[in-house]
């Protein structure tokens, strides 16, 4: 999907009309973002997205008829799918984790600041994933539960990495963007992207949340 910083096509899927209005007001004010469609439930969203062809979709997780999880699964199974950002109020919501496993590229709390919301859409349009540090720790903790087997597996996976790759993995686990990782580790953004590509392969991960979970399971979040 061809997308530039000047032409981000965005769709909003949420059953709350006030939430949709707020998102429209915040995101519609950014010159690079064009809101190409809205839906109040997942079933309606599937048709809307097929017609509107957004680059990025903001997806509520709890909706009537077809929830955000099932909608995300259906969307990411399509050829050249839109990139899905899950919206959540976060109440130990396992559905968020499931959405990420099934292809969503990140999540945002509904009380995310306007600046962070706009930045998140731009980051996802550039091909990054969104990892909100405050929520990531809770999501990871919800599924980690101190399992010795999980820790052993995580340590074994991280043992495949070079020192530099390990440092990048820990930075991903802290929720840093590619640009922030580049600045903190004194490397170029292109080099960071190369390392992250290797992390996906070596850690058997498909998104940054999975990398963060492995880092957390190995006990390296504060490294």
Q: What is this structure, in a nutshell?
A:
This protein is an alpha/beta fold and 223 residues long.
Q: Could you characterize the architecture of this molecule?
A:
This protein is of the alpha/beta class. The protein has two domains: 8-130, 3-Layer(aba) Sandwich (Rossmann fold); 146-217, Arc Repressor Mutant, subunit A (Orthogonal Bundle), CATH 1.10.10. It has eleven helices and five strands; from the N terminus they run E-H-E-H-E-H-E-H-E-H-H-H-H-H-H-H. Strands 2-1-3-4-5 form a five-stranded parallel β-sheet, with helices on both faces. Helix 4 links the parallel strand 4 and strand 5 (106-109). Helix 6 packs across helix 11 and helix 8 (163-173) crosses helix 11. The radius of gyration is 17 Å and the shape is globular. 39% of the residues are buried.
Total domains, how many? 2
Q: What's the rounded overall pLDDT mean?
A: 84
Order of helices and strands: EHEHEHEHEHHHHHHH
Structure classification: alpha/beta
Per DSSP E runs of 2 or more residues, the count of β-strands stands at 5
CA gyration radius, whole angstroms: 17 Å
CATH architectural label of the largest domain? 3-Layer(aba) Sandwich
Question: Based on CA inertia axes, which overall geometry fits?
Answer: globular
Give the low-confidence spans.
none
Q: What's the CATH topology label of the largest domain?
A: Rossmann fold
Roughly how many Å apart are the termini? Answer: 37 Å
CATH class of the largest domain, please?
Alpha Beta
What is the beta-strand fraction? 5-15%
């Amino acid at each position: 999907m061809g997308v530039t910083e000047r032409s981000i096509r965005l769709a909003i899927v949420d059953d709350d009309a006030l939430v949709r209005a707020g998102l429209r007001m915040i995101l519609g004010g950014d010159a690079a973002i064009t809101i190409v469609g809205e839906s109040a439930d997942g079933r309606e969203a599937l048709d809307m997205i097929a017609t509107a062809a957004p680059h990025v979709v903001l997806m509520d997780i709890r909706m009537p008829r077809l929830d955000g999880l099932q909608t995300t699964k259906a969307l990411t199974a399509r050829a050249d799918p839109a990139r899905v950002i899950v919206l959540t109020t976060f109440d130990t919501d396992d559905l968020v984790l499931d959405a990420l496993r099934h292809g969503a590229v990140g999540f945002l709390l509904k009380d995310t600041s306007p600046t962070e919301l706009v930045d998140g859409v731009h980051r996802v349009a550039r091909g990054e994933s969104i990892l909100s540090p405050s929520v990531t720790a809770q999501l990871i903790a919800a599924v980690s539960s101190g399992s010795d087997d999980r820790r052993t597996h995580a340590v074994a996976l991280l043992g495949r990495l070079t020192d530099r790759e390990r440092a990048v993995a820990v930075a991903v686990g802290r929720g840093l963007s590619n640009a922030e990782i580049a600045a903190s580790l004194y490397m170029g953004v292109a080099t960071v992207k190369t390392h992250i590509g290797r992390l996906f392969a070596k850690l058997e991960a498909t998104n940054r949340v999975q990398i963060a979970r492995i880092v957390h399971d190995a006990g390296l979040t504060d490294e």
